[in-house]
Specification:
about 500 residues, single chain, mainly alpha, Glutamyl-tRNA Synthetase, domain 3, about 45% helix, Rossmann fold, RNA-binding
RNA sequence: GGCCGGUUCGUCUAUCGGCUAGGACAUCUCCCUUUCACGGAGGAAAGACGGGUUCGAUUCCCGUACCGGCUACCA
């Protein structure tokens, strides 16, 4: 391929963008960047009935969060605009007319009601080469009548005239040779009654006009490939057609079928990249971002859903993905989405990334939870201390709140049963020891704690858990002396004293 | 129903004719850790089925089964 690589992602702004779509974006992006090409984002809004306000912005927000920025789009500009199909409406008619003129398409005057009636009568009714001659179209009507109907602006569509008994095939980058016999292909509508093109006409025209070299889409599009190939043949020449790759579907974790946004609610995991609220129904679909995912992790597990580089590496940065990605190594079969594994990726990224990469997010999360953080250095220390224990960013709230505010609840029930006079005295003594101590490093705190335990004829283990609960409130958190160190002398002593009172 | 696609541990996957079928998630056991994690060691766990081709098939071919997708003036 000597042409510059140009790929496109073409969502319709009908609301939400789930992980299947996001993965298609990712693969487009990786392919484009790997080949030093361009990534275009085209809005396919040819169905005006399904337009959802805010959906376009949402799509861009998701891409931005992931760092997958288009080179050309309705907001990034570019030399091949407009990038919104509704604004290209007039372009398509010309090509539809050309097809009619060359006998590759025809006018059809059947009304939606008539078609519906037909389908009711004939269960598996298809508008195709075997039925078109009993329908109301320019193939069955005489020329004068057609002219008259057109002249009087009778509602009509333009349908492709699929040839009889031909083999149409192409080489899919993932699947290899795929062939269809045209006898099985329907006469799809190309131009709708409202003058808008259907997807079939629009993809072909726009991919040509936008000089797209490689076209990637979900496997669900495979059956309509012959229509598109025929269109390329009739309009622009097969030699100019982009190479196709039909990506494997992302399947439900349980049961069967492709993943849908409803599966998330049902099974308790996000399906969209970011939270999405449907403006019409008010229904909220949860997003990975709000659930506490790092974009690095989101991208990483998306990439591995259907692709791998042949090695045993699993954690990839975006640059590594760009470097190693190839469409030929994408799987043919669908991949079942596994939320547990996606969490593992997030944990890996939390551990690997410098904490500065997500410190601001954690700070915001704490703030949202009512935990004010004024000391950024302290936050950094805390995050560093607890990050191994956090799978999702939201886990930082539970793991670090007690560093910044007194625990709301002290799990005294965990101490009470084994509490006695001896322990009571140990902590009274500990308070005195710590009050006198001039050093406040965790090693020193631990040493004096253990010396005191030994002097009191106790095993450290007997008093370590109570100590933890005094400082943390519960049975969790990093090493207790590290906690004490960060908390500082005054706060540590206050918490011991407070809990001691609770135990009275 | 028709057309198209797919089929390796529970899940994601490696293997491009030589396999004692490798890794990861999850799971189990143990070690480390006087919380929980992290980390370390180990265990259990797979080639849908039937025919070919071949010295040899998970790998190539053909059937069957099963799974999925599509079958709108939606994308």
């Amino acid at each position: 391929m000597d042409r510059k690589v140009r790929v496109r992602f073409a969502p319709s702004p009908t609301g939400g963008l789930h992980i299947g779509g996001m993965r298609t974006v990712l693969f487009n992006y990786l392919f484009a960047k790997h080949h030093k090409g361009e990534f275009i984002l085209r809005i396919e809004d040819t169905d005006q009935n399904r337009f959802v306000p805010g959906a376009e912005e949402y799509i861009f927000d998701c891409l931005k969060w992931c760092g997958l920025q288009p080179d050309e789009s309705i907001i990034h500009g570019g030399a091949y605009g407009p990038y919104r199909q509704s604004e290209r409406k007039d372009l398509y008619k010309k090509y539809a007319d050309e097809l009619v003129k060359n006998d590759h398409a025809y006018y059809a005057f059947d009304t939606p009601a008539e078609l519906e009636e037909k389908r009711k009568q004939t269960p598996n009714f298809q508008y195709n080469q075997s039925t078109r001659n009993v329908m109301k179209n320019s193939l069955t009507l005489c020329d004068d009548e057609v002219k008259k109907l057109l002249a009087t602006n009778t509602q009509h569509v333009i349908r492709i005239k699929i040839p009889h008994d031909e083999t149409v095939g192409f080489t899919d980058m993932i699947r290899g040779a795929v062939n269809f016999n045209t006898t099985q292909v329907d006469d799809k509508v190309l131009l709708k009654a409202d003058g808008m093109p259907t997807y079939h006409l629009a993809v072909v025209v726009d991919d040509y006009l936008m000089k797209v070299t490689h076209a990637f889409r979900g496997e669900e599009w495979l059956p309509s490939a012959p229509v598109h190939i025929l269109l390329w043949q009739y309009l622009f020449g097969l030699e100019n057609m982009p190479e196709w790759a039909h990506l494997p579907l992302i399947l439900k974790p349980d049961g069967k079928g492709k993943l849908s946004k409803r599966d998330g609610d049902r099974l308790g995991f996000p399906v969209f990249a970011m939270n999405w609220t449907d403006p019409k129904t008010g229904e909220l679909t949860a997003g990975f971002r709000e659930r506490g995912f790092l974009p690095e992790a989101f991208i990483n597990f998306l990439a591995l859903l259907g692709w791998n580089d042949g090695t045993e590496q699993e954690v990839f940065s975006i640059d590594e993905l760009i470097k190693n990605f190839s469409m030929e190594r994408v799987h043919k079969s669908g991949a079942r989405f596994d939320f547990e594994k996606s969490k593992w990726f997030n944990h890996e990224w939390i551990k690997r990334l410098p904490v500065s990469a997500y410190l601001a997010t954690v700070k915001q999360l704490l703030q949202d939870a009512g935990v004010g953080v004024t000391d950024d250095e302290k936050l950094k220390t805390v995050v560093e201390l607890v990050k191994d224990r956090c799978i999702l960013l939201t886990d930082f709230v539970q793991q670090s709140s007690f560093f910044f505010q007194t625990p709301k609840e002290i799990d005294v029930n965990a101490i009470q049963p084994k509490w006695n006079e001896q322990k009571q005295q140990f902590f009274a003594e500990l308070i005195r020891t710590y009050e006198l101590s001039t050093l406040w490093q965790h090693e020193d705190l631990e040493n004096s704690f253990k010396e005191l335990a030994a002097a009191s004829q106790m095993k450290p283990g007997d008093v370590l858990l109570p100590f933890r609960i005094m400082l943390v409130g519960g049975k969790f958190g990093p090493h207790v002396f590290n906690i004490a160190e960060v908390l500082g002398k005054e706060e540590t002593l206050t918490r011991i004293k407070n809990t001691l009172q609770l135990l009275q």
